[in-house]
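Re-running Ornithine cyclodeaminase family protein to confirm reproducibility after the cluster update. Everything else is unchanged from the original entry.
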Amino acid sequence: MEVISATDINKGYSMKEAMKSIEDFYNYKEDSYISPDRMHVEDGKNTALLMPAFYGNYYSTKLVGVAPNNSSKGKDTIHSLMILYDRETMVPLFMCDGIAITSLRTGALGGLGMKYLAKNDAKTLGIIGTGTQGWSHLQSAMVARDISEVHIFNRTKEKADQFKLKAEKEFPNVHFHVSSIEDLVKQSDIIVTATTSPQPVLPELSPLDWKGKLIVGVGSFRPDMQEITDQVLQEADEVYVDFNSALHESGDMIRAKDLKPNLEESLNLETIITEEHFPSSPENKTILFKSVGAAIFDLIVTKSIYKKLYK
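Result of re-run:
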């Protein structure tokens, strides 16, 4: 069994490749797949997740531990391992850092949402939450759109400042600002919420302040977590999800269904890509794309890495 570190993945594989692997999966898939809802086990505020998937010649499992209080202890919030197996024999082929896979596939999903759902001239990005997913969505935004300006917000300003310094080195031609959350929303065409907050993180603003904006919600993955305010959930003209499981896994979408009973008809990423079902006049609408991820996306990205680096 091959074993690879997150550092080696990041050196040998790009966000652009991750986004293409998911697009190709939808555009060219020939086999059916199995991707059950993730298994959640709650331990106080902590969560253990098990995510198996089957597709083509491969089977995969991802084990994830989420400890929201770790940030106050100077430790990462999420720890994870990813294993890819031969589907027929169940022999393990490849083990890697699950955080790197989650970062790539979640960023890729958000990036595809930005590519297909944001208004044509979207150039400014707002990132709320400066952890791993905030960074991965910065990377995918740069692939998906011609981003020239980025606004950053984190409850701990020191972390926002550190994120800004890192981003300026990685993307020297882009202007970065540490902003208030109100200014971030008003100045950004695309807004990413990438926190583990159980309470909404977006501000209450005039409905007009949300028009022409795409909100990409990626942080909440449990029914008791809600990043998006009721105002935005109610005002959103169009709502999309990455995978149908988002409708009952995320507190954002559970609450949205309370406010909009017809939300079960939300379109998912497969429909967006394969049927080209894009929002009309996005410059005049408030659009929400909610992503929770799914095991099949972990498998697709991991298989792509394995084939590139080892086959």
